[in-house]
Design goal:
- The complex is a heterodimer of chains A (241) and B (149).
- Chain A has 241 residues and is mainly alpha-helical.
- Chain A has a single domain (6-239), classed as Growth Hormone, Chain: A (Up-down Bundle).
- Chain A is built from nine helices and no strands.
- Chain A is globular and about 55 Å long.
- The radius of gyration of chain B is 21 Å and the shape is elongated.
- Classes of the chains: A mainly alpha (241), B alpha+beta (149).
- At the A-B interface, helix 3 and helix 5 of A face helix 1 and strand 4 of B.
């Protein structure tokens, strides 16, 4: 699911990647809202909040929200650097590097939250920043690998596309296989984001910070399938080489 | 636009982003809501807002612990004492969440109250009782600073 990039990707690759990462993002976002009172996978609200805090002259909050935005930006930036920087070392390392970093970061957040979190404001802000970094990393990686077809940490663009596609599907001349594929992809991502959100909320209420271990397990499964595809199946990159 | 393709471009971008981040960090270091809230606050107003009917207020207010305290004292160790005159009438633990815009009070009986901090400066504290992430609140509490802890 990770080994091909851009035009080489098939629908199934995008479906698997989109569904798994959307569920992971939703679990992180819901857990973030419940424990930290801050969204951790979508930043549109943070940009609006930044403007609001500037207007109100709340400089502390302005600084915090700006740092959070920079962390999301930094995650996507690092994803691009890792994928491009490791390209010569092969598809596995190059494509898996961001998700390995994200998995390790989420594991650290899970362990810290589970064992050491005292609910101080500083800890809360640093953990939210770390989660935003992870989500930037994931969103960047998914966007790069799917050639901008898939973004899984927020749904504004996705629901816009979905509305447009459903509208287009009302006309016979636009009812193409490509449109059907896009609809299938977007509905799948939306469904898995919702399922991930419900599951994340339920698991957080029952197991607190240990919900992050479930996200880590999900991302590890993504890595496992990536490795399996690379070792057992013949990756498309190699076929092309 | 030639400079964009210059070899120094990554360095320029990193420097600009670092400067912005350092600026934001300096704001964060300068102000600290947790330190700002510490001390004694005298309740000066209690009002309701954004309510369509008064029945809603009376129905929901049963769920809300209406504080009869005249003043709240936030301690450095995250203890909160509610005073009526010189008497402590209730105790709770306080925590700040989000970007320092949420105040959570945990009472000894295990109940929790969550407030939106609408304003916090050295003189004034305004709390809205929170009924959801995006709510404007149903109860508005206004405090003035009495002294530091």
């Amino acid at each position: 699911m990770l080994y091909t990039q851009n035009v080489n990707r098939k629908l199934n690759n995008n479906l698997l990647l989109g569904a798994s990462t959307a569920a992971a993002a939703a679990m992180v976002n819901v857990a973030g809202v419940m424990v930290f009172f801050a969204y951790t996978s979508n930043i549109t609200g943070h940009v609006a909040t930044l403007a609001q805090e500037v207007v109100k002259g709340h400089w502390y909050q302005t600084g915090i929200v700006f740092i959070w935005l920079m962390m999301f930006f930094g995650g996507s930036f690092v994803a691009q650097l890792l994928i491009t920087g490791f390209q010569k070392k092969g598809a596995f390392i190059s494509h898996a590097a961001p998700i390995i970093l994200e998995t390790l970061s989420l594991l650290f957040i899970g362990i810290y939250g589970h064992l050491y979190y005292h609910e101080s404001l500083k800890e809360t802000e640093i953990l939210v920043a770390s989660l935003l970094f992870c989500m930037g990393l994931q969103n960047g990686m998914v966007a790069i690998l799917s050639g901008n077809q898939v973004k899984t940490t927020h749904l504004t663009g996705l629901i816009t596309d979905l509305g447009r596609e459903v509208g287009a599907s009302f006309f016979l001349k636009y009812r193409t296989p490509q449109l059907k594929e896009k609809l299938k992809l977007h509905v799948t991502i939306l469904a898995f984001y919702f399922i991930g959100g419900v599951l994340g909320g339920y698991l957080f209420l029952s197991y607190d910070f240990q919900v992050f271990y479930v996200v880590v397990a999900l991302l590890t499964a993504v890595l496992y399938f990536h490795l399996k595809s690379l070792l057992i199946d013949k990756p498309l990159d190699d076929q092309l080489d | 636009m030639k400079w964009i393709f210059d070899q120094r471009y990554p360095l320029i971008v990193i420097c600009c982003l670092s400067l912005l981040t350092i600026g934001a960090l300096s704001l964060v270091i300068r102000y600290n809501p947790e330190s700002m809230i510490e001390g004694q606050w005298k309740e000066t107003a209690w009002s309701y807002e954004k309510i369509d009917t008064r029945d809603f207020v009376y129905h929901d207010i049963k769920l809300l612990r209406k504080h009869t305290a005249e003043s709240w004292k936030f301690m450095t160790n995250h203890q909160l004492y509610f005073y009526n005159g010189h008497d402590i009438i209730a105790k709770a633990k306080w925590k700040m969440k989000g970007r320092g815009h949420i105040l959570q009070l945990l009472y000894e009986d295990g109940t929790t109250e969550t407030y939106d901090i609408k304003e916090l400066n050295k003189d004034e504290l305004v709390l809205n009782f929170d009924i959801g992430m995006e709510s404007r609140g149903i109860a508005r509490l206004v405090f003035n600073k009495v002294d530091r802890p």
